[in-house]
Specification:
Layout: E1 12-22, H1 24-31, E2 47-55, E3 67-70, E4 73-74, H2 80-83, E5 94-95, E6 107-111, E7 115-117, H3 124-129, H4 131-144, E8 152-156, H5 162-172, E9 176-181, H6 184-191, E10 197-200, H7 207-214, E11 220-225, H8 232-237, E12 239-247, H9 260-266, E13 269-272, H10 278-289, E14 297-302, H11 306-312, E15 321-325
Parallel strand pairs: 8-9, 8-11, 9-10, 11-12, 12-13, 14-15
Antiparallel strand pairs: 1-2, 1-6, 1-15, 2-3, 3-7, 4-5
Helix pairs in contact: 4-5, 4-10
Bound molecules: zinc ion.
Amino acid sequence: MDVPPPEPGPGEVRVRVRAAAFNRLDRFVVEGIPGIPIELPHVLGSDASGVVDRLGEGVTDIVPGAEVLVNPGLWDGTCEYCRKGQESLCRDFRILGEHTQGSATEYIVVPARNLHAKPPVWSWGQAAAAPLVFQTAWRALRSVGELRPGETVAVIGAGGALAPAAIQVAHRLGGRVVVVGRNPAKVEKAIRLGAEAGLVVTTEKPHDRLLWEWSDKRGIDVIFDSAGAETVSRSLRALARGGRLVVVGATQGPKVEIDLRTLFWRQGSLRGSTMASRAEFDAVYAELVRGHLLPIIDSEWEWDRGVEAFHRLGAPDVFGKVVLRTGDPGR
Ligand SMILES: [Zn+2]
């Protein structure tokens, strides 16, 4: 479909997209999220990298031609939470590609404050692979999970896009990282990103039992769980006294039954986390730029293979971000 490039409004910038990255989120958008009306045809993709193409009124701190990556979190900047610097709690918080048209297109218009310089040593694909997953992992583990150096931290699920980011962030924050997953090859890859141990789940040995044994029946201080229905009640059972179970998604379903006795007796807490504030984004971006954290790409696809790229998201061995390159490299 040919549509004219969108025009940036005040405070906004138009970016010519060079690479976009899909997320598990995109599959939910396609399948439909109750309560979120989607305007059709819908453009997928939350993350993007590209070249600044046109400036809206009042934008002075960036120039056309600048190479950037895009933070896909959108906030109004005016509500009580934004005024306190808690942008991901914004009353009007949205994610590019989920609540709005996404990044897998030729041009996108975003607020200038959402742009960050693309580190010159990164490919376009790496720049598009970083923003969503690293900010999510950073806030969930550091701010919400209050992970402290020396504490044990379990990442539930070894593959996808989020776990490779969460393992690196947990390691960087000084945690003793253990990763659990069903696929031995993915667990092996995950260990190389900074985990101290990788445990393979079986029918006889679900992840709570594995973690309980690994920790010598002490439990885990911080558990990072994005699976939801399938794992959260078990994760709770693997929590140490005073531990924090941080839920960042519900890819396997949203409803769980938990045993409150486990929660209060261990004096644990069940916490939720989404995306990140501006300050948290800046902090994790600085770590990325310094090379302490590395964007992990599962696969990169040319523009005309977008449908195959999208299907790759559902593959059992996906590890890292699925990236779509747009347009010809010479333009
Ligand atoms: Zn707000």
